[in-house]
Design brief:
The complex is a heterodimer of chains A (116) and B (114). Chain A has 116 residues and is mainly beta. Chain A has no helices and 12 strands. In chain A, strands 2, 5, 6, 10, 11 and 12 form a 6-stranded mixed sheet that branches. The N and C termini of chain A lie far apart (38 Å). Chain B has strands at residues 4-7, 10-13, 19-25, 31-37, 43-51, 54-57, 64-66, 76-78, 87-94, 104-105, 109-113. Chain B is built from no helices and 11 strands. Helices cover 0% and strands 49% of the residues of chain B. The termini of chain B are far apart. Chain B is globular. The chains are: A mainly beta (116), B mainly beta (114). At the A-B interface, strand 6, strand 10 and strand 11 of A face strand 4, strand 5, strand 9 and strand 10 of B.
């Protein structure tokens, strides 16, 4: 079964609009972490934001916020006031502890294109 | 501060050849990972390590081997390269959660098998 599901292969948004990238996850571990990474066309993986499973408040980092709905097992990324430089692949990832080992698994990604 | 360093950046292999992708981190992280990313796809975990001398299989380990003789190094070995192993390979490292959650990635190795 997919541990991390990103249902939007691609999204197109007008510059300056807000955009929400969806992510749902599946785990039976009560302690886990959720991440979003950005991968521009140059290929590197850029860490954006982190949410711990016990965190009471939604994580925010500048224009990025994570809409964490634990009961629904969703961790959507919200980018406010999108910019042309936000065009990239975005990956949701989950860290869970399995038999004492920390594993990091990724979703399939969403390609975001910001139109001027 | 180097972070995670992968070599080489690019490589072309012929079918049946073997090679080792090198990965070194200087952050004293316990956890290290190897992923592959096929075009337009997400990252799939090949192998991971929770510390020196301890490795385990991820999602797609077939055709690969790893070793972890030191905390810093986590090389990935391809034996008998096949076209299906054409991909971009990423090495990553992270500390236990209480020391900071982020996983740090290398720049990637683009491998083509022809």
């Amino acid at each position: 079964a997919q541990k991390i599901t990103q249902t939007q292969p691609g999204m197109f948004v007008q510059e300056k609009e807000a955009v929400t990238l969806d992510c749902t996850y599946d785990t039976s571990d009560p302690s886990y972490g959720l991440f979003w990474y950005k991968q521009p066309s140059s290929g590197e993986m850029i860490f954006l934001i982190y949410q711990g499973s016990y965190d009471q408040q939604n994580a925010t980092e500048g224009r990025y916020s994570l809409n964490f709905q634990k009961a629904r097992k969703s961790a959507n990324l919200v980018i406010s006031a999108s910019q042309l430089g936000d065009s990239a692949m975005y990956f949701c990832a989950m860290r869970e502890i399995i038999q004492g080992a920390q594993k990091l698994v990724f979703g399939q990604g969403t390609r975001l294109t910001i139109n001027p | 501060n180097a972070g995670v360093t992968q070599t080489p950046k690019f490589r072309i292999l012929k079918i049946g050849q073997s090679m080792t992708l090198q990965c070194t981190q200087d952050m004293n992280h316990n956890y290290m990972y190897w992923y592959r990313q096929d075009p337009g796809m997400g990252l799939k975990l090949i192998y991971y390590s929770v510390g020196a001398g301890i490795t385990d299989k991820g999602e797609v380990p077939n055709g690969y081997n790893v070793s972890r003789s030191t905390t810093e190094d986590f090389p990935l070995r391809l034996e008998l390269a096949a076209p299906s192993q054409t991909s971009v390979y990423f090495c990553a490292s992270s500390a236990p959660n209480q020391q900071g959650p982020e996983a740090f990635f290398g720049q990637g190795t683009r491998l083509t098998v022809v």
